[in-house]
């Protein structure tokens, strides 16, 4: 049923598929960023549990990598928004 609604919306206008693709792309970027940051946090907690004396270095590296992942996800979301608003 949902597929029929999406196909009908896409058939009504030529820009429908582009907007649909942009929405799916933004969603995938958000899901990927969430999964990546979750894995980083889990791995950092494991590393700190194994070597508590290295907690400072692990946290610093974790924050830097998480910031880079967030930047890539934000870039992807902005590109998807630009695609959807350009049409």
From TrEMBL:
What are the transmembrane regions? 15-40, 61-85
Q: Where is this site: Reversibly protonated during proton transport?
A: 70
One GO term in the molecular function aspect is: lipid binding
Q: Which domain of life is it from?
A: Bacteria
Query: Where in the cell is the protein located?
Result: Cell inner membrane; Membrane
Q: Which UniProt keywords apply?
A: ATP synthesis, Cell inner membrane, Cell membrane, CF(0), Hydrogen ion transport, Ion transport, Lipid-binding, Membrane, Transmembrane, Transmembrane helix, Transport
Q: How is it placed in the membrane, per its record?
A: Multi-pass membrane protein
Q: Which InterPro entries match?
A: ATP_synth_csu_bac/chlpt, ATP_synth_F0_csu, ATP_synth_F0_csu_DDCD_BS, ATP_synth_F0_csu_sf, ATPase_proteolipid_c-like_dom, F/V-ATP_Csub_sf
Q: Which GO terms describe its cellular component?
A: plasma membrane; proton-transporting ATP synthase complex; proton-transporting two-sector ATPase complex, proton-transporting domain
| Family according to the record | Belongs to the ATPase C chain family.
Q: How does it assemble?
A: F-type ATPases have 2 components, F(1) - the catalytic core - and F(0) - the membrane proton channel. F(1) has five subunits: alpha(3), beta(3), gamma(1), delta(1), epsilon(1). F(0) has three main subunits: a(1), b(2) and c(10-14). The alpha and beta chains form an alternating ring which encloses part of the gamma chain. F(1) is attached to F(0) by a central stalk formed by the gamma and epsilon chains, while a peripheral stalk is formed by the delta and b chains.
PANTHER family according to UniProt: ATP SYNTHASE LIPID-BINDING PROTEIN, MITOCHONDRIAL, ATPASE PROTEIN 9
Known function: F(1)F(0) ATP synthase produces ATP from ADP in the presence of a proton or sodium gradient. F-type ATPases consist of two structural domains, F(1) containing the extramembraneous catalytic core and F(0) containing the membrane proton channel, linked together by a central stalk and a peripheral stalk. During catalysis, ATP synthesis in the catalytic domain of F(1) is coupled via a rotary mechanism of the central stalk subunits to proton translocation. Key component of the F(0) channel; it plays a direct role in translocation across the membrane. A homomeric c-ring of between 10-14 subunits forms the central stalk rotor element with the F(1) delta and epsilon subunits.
Task: List, alphabetically, the NCBIfam families matched.
Answer: ATP_synt_c
Protein name as annotated:
ATP synthase subunit c
Organism classification = Bacteria, Pseudomonadati, Bacteroidota, Cytophagia, Cytophagales
């Amino acid at each position: 049923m949902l597929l029929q609604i999406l196909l009908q919306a896409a058939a009504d206008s030529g820009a429908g598929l582009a907007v649909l693709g942009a929405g799916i792309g933004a969603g995938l970027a958000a899901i990927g960023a969430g999964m990546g940051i979750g894995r980083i946090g889990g791995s950092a907690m494991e590393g700190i549990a194994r070597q508590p004396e290295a907690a400072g270095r692990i946290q610093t590296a974790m924050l830097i990598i998480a910031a880079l992942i967030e930047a890539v996800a934000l870039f992807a979301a902005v590109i998807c928004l630009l695609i959807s608003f350009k049409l």
